[in-house]
């Protein structure tokens, strides 16, 4: 079954070219199926790229999914096309009285910025508080994960001396969890962050359980024991060239602290095309989240979410 998005969203043509079934609003209205309502708070400056990456991962499911995009009202992105934002994005005031089956809060380029110093921190806190009663299951991604852990549980985020940059093996701590159905015991996933948390701080929270860690013991995935909130620091939604674009961009800026992304370029040779080793894990992660933690337990009447 397809994802349901506006006909003119730029991701529409890209996904159709990849043989991903995207349903028009008109066709969806004539199906007697209640779609899952998924809201995406997109905090990334590269709006269209992030939209396409997430929609691609949400598409591989037999469920019909109605996706909406949310932007902050307290901060206007300097890199986003205003017409694109006006056409495809809403603000919190416009949707705060509605309820959603699932929500994704994305990452943001905020390494070394304390949460309280973030321009839209108060608004994001209001949205995260609202998710407790208006969203059945929330997926916090990268900076969104650190923001969520800090806001909901007081887990302090830490600055790394060197950015964790590349594609890393991950150990699954909860192998019988439906979240990892179809996974190998070790899975690969990209990271691009100079932020972390102490694993022991997360493990000390009774309401949380650690689901997966990186090869070096850094938190990769945690969730609440009631499965209403997920915190994911790895980027399984990344395209093949996402890390290379970041690497070459930083090299062109003359940054002296740029590391070659690990386990990414064949033979660590940046002249060679990157080899993707995380695509299947990413598809499974998002599909399993939707199927087992949103669809299987959300009320049929979305208004019953609380």
UniProtKB/TrEMBL annotation:
Q: In chain numbering, where does the site feature Important for substrate specificity fall? A: 192
Q: Which residues form the active site?
A: 142, 235, 237
Q: Superkingdom, according to UniProt?
A: Bacteria
Q: Which SUPFAM superfamilies match?
A: Class I glutamine amidotransferase-like
Q: What class of enzyme is it?
A: transferase
Question: What GO terms are given for molecular function?
Answer: homoserine O-acetyltransferase activity; homoserine O-succinyltransferase activity
Protein's GO biological process: L-methionine biosynthetic process from homoserine via O-succinyl-L-homoserine and cystathionine
Entry keyword Protein transport: no
Q: What is its EC number?
A: 2.3.1.31
Point out the annotated site residues (description: Important for acyl-CoA specificity).
111
The keyword Acyltransferase belongs to this UniProt entry's keyword annotation? yes
Q: What pathway is it annotated to?
A: Amino-acid biosynthesis; L-methionine biosynthesis via de novo pathway; O-acetyl-L-homoserine from L-homoserine: step 1/1
The residues that hold substrate are 163, 192, 249
Q: Could you tell me what reaction this enzyme catalyses?
A: L-homoserine + acetyl-CoA = O-acetyl-L-homoserine + CoA
Recorded GO CC terms: cytoplasm
UniProt-annotated location(s): Cytoplasm
User: Per UniProt, which keywords does this protein have?
Assistant: Acyltransferase, Amino-acid biosynthesis, Cytoplasm, Methionine biosynthesis, Transferase
State what this protein does: Transfers an acetyl group from acetyl-CoA to L-homoserine, forming acetyl-L-homoserine.
Which family is it part of? Answer: Belongs to the MetA family.
> Per its record, how is this protein called by name?
Homoserine O-acetyltransferase
- Species of origin: Hominifimenecus microfluidus
């Amino acid at each position: 079954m397809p994802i349901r998005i506006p006909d003119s969203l730029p991701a529409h043509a890209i996904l159709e070219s990849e043989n991903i079934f995207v349903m028009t609003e008109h066709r969806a209205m004539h199906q007697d199926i209640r779609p899952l309502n998924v809201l995406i708070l997109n905090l990334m400056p590269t709006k269209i790229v992030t939209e396409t990456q997430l929609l691609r991962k949400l598409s591989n499911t037999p469920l019909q999914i109605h996706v909406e995009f949310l932007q902050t009202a307290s901060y206007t992105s300097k890199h986003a096309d205003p017409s694109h934002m006006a056409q495809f994005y809403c603000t919190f005031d416009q949707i705060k009285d509605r309820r959603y089956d699932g929500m994704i809060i994305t990452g943001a380029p905020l390494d070394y910025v304390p949460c309280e110093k973030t321009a839209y921190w108060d608004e994001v806190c209001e949205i995260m508080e609202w998710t407790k009663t208006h969203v059945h299951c929330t997926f916090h991604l990268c900076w969104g994960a650190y923001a969520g852990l800090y806001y909901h549980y007081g887990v302090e985020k830490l600055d790394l001396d060197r950015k964790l940059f590349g594609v890393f093996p991950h150990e699954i701590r909860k192998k019988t969890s439906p979240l990892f159905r179809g996974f190998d015991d070790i899975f690969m996933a990209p990271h691009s962050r100079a932020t972390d948390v102490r694993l022991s701080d997360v493990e000390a929270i009774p309401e949380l359980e650690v689901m997966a860690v990186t090869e070096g013991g850094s938190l990769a995935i945690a969730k609440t024991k009631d499965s209403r909130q997920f915190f994911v620091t790895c980027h399984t939604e990344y395209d093949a060239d996402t890390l290379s674009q970041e690497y070459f961009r930083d090299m062109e800026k003359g940054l002296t602290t740029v590391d070659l992304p690990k386990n990414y370029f064949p033979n660590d040779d940046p002249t060679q095309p990157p080899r993707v080793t995380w695509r299947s894990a990413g598809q499974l992660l998002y599909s399993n989240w939707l199927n087992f933690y949103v669809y299987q337990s959300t009320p049929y009447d979305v208004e019953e979410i609380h």
